[in-house]
Amino acid sequence: MKIEFQRDSFGKALQSVGTVVEKKTTMPILGNILLEAKGDRLQISATDLEIGIQATCPVRVLTEGRVCVPARSLIDIVRELPDEKGTLRKGDNEWLVVESGKAQFRVVGMVADEFPKMQPKDKFKFSKLRVETLKHGIEKTGFAICTDEMRYNLNGAFIETRKGDKGGTQFRMVTTDGHRLALVDTTLSDDETFSLAKGVILPRKGVAELRRLLGESTSKLIGAAVADGNAAFQIEDVVIAMRLVVGEFPDYTAVIPKGNKKKLMLDRNLFSQSLHRVSLLSEGKSKCIRLGIKKDGVHLSANSPELGEAEEEVQGEFMGDDMEIGFNARYILDALSVVDGNKVMIELDHAQSPGVIRIPNDANFLSVIMPMRI
């Protein structure tokens, strides 16, 4: 195997796959990437056995072949090459030789056949999905993905397609950790053909990698597919495939309160800033904040025997009888961070019922937060 490459395009492709490489693993091969030169392209593959990423970049292939090399070493080498162009060839005993200008690097590689086999992209039947549809869903719901490994069926984002209330097809993404829930709907446009017969759960790490790749993309449309317990997304010259989370996602619709008639309207920025200040003296991990709600706004208070007390008033409008309720401040702040616009609405019923955070005049987003004892 021998190729000539452009440093920048090769480096970009390496960076696309590098984040999935396992840094600490009992399987040394997972710390490597597979390079395959064929035709006029170089395909670069990385996997942790749960997620696989393949990127391609244009090169001049002098000799076709395959080689497996430590990911971190090659990424660092290519980044520091002195010239814009370089050559890469497979030497004796699986060594990889990289040359650029007067610099030469010889890296110990591994047998390419030992690299785990990945799902070939031609096994997936890709349909079209807008970058903004998937990116919007992840940005609005990612904060509520469960990180407790024991609750494996919550360790990801649930996606489904459904008929919208006003016609058309909606792409829905839902996340929950058992204490809070986030949901967002996006109406698919005419050029989006993605659909699911049944909802599936994308794994947490896969969602994080997707968010990174989507943020780097300049395309409007991507390919999306679900088949045989896997999901795959084609984003420009990069394909990411992931094993779906096995298990049933809970009935999230049962968690969303239907009878919350009390509505609190607040300035999002003022509420967020006040909540952050008062939470500085809230206790431990619970970050419990007491909300004393009345017609002209809300009184925030927190106290801790070890830290002290804090309180602050926030002006607003409340439709309902005065009430007090407790919430984890961090959960509210996370939800407020993805709310668009200047206003936020919180729907309530009583001190033991969940609160629902909504964007005024937008029925496509909501976040449910369970209350705390005060």
Largest beta sheet: strand ordering: 14-11-12-13-25-24-23-18-21-20-19-22
How many angstroms does the end-to-end distance come to?
68 Å
Looking at the structure, what is the overall shape? elongated
Helical content stands at 10-25%
Per DSSP, the total helix count is: 6
Given as residue ranges, the uncertain stretches (5+ residues, pLDDT < 50) are: none
Determine the strand fraction and express it as a percent band: 35-45%
Secondary-structure class: alpha+beta
Number of strands: 25
Give the gist of this structure.
By secondary structure, the chain is α+β, with helices and mostly antiparallel strands. It is 17% helix and 44% strand.
Question: What are the salient characteristics of this protein?
Answer:
374 residues; 25 strands; alpha+beta; elongated; twelve-stranded antiparallel sheet; single chain
Description:
- There is one protein chain.
- This protein is α+β, with helices and mostly antiparallel strands.
- It has six helices and 25 strands.
- The strands form three sheets. It has a twelve-stranded antiparallel sheet with strand order 14-11-12-13-25-24-23-18-21-20-19-22.
- Helix 3 (131-141) packs across helix 4 (204-216).
- The chain starts with a strand and ends in a 5-residue tail after the last strand.
- The relative contact order is 0.11.
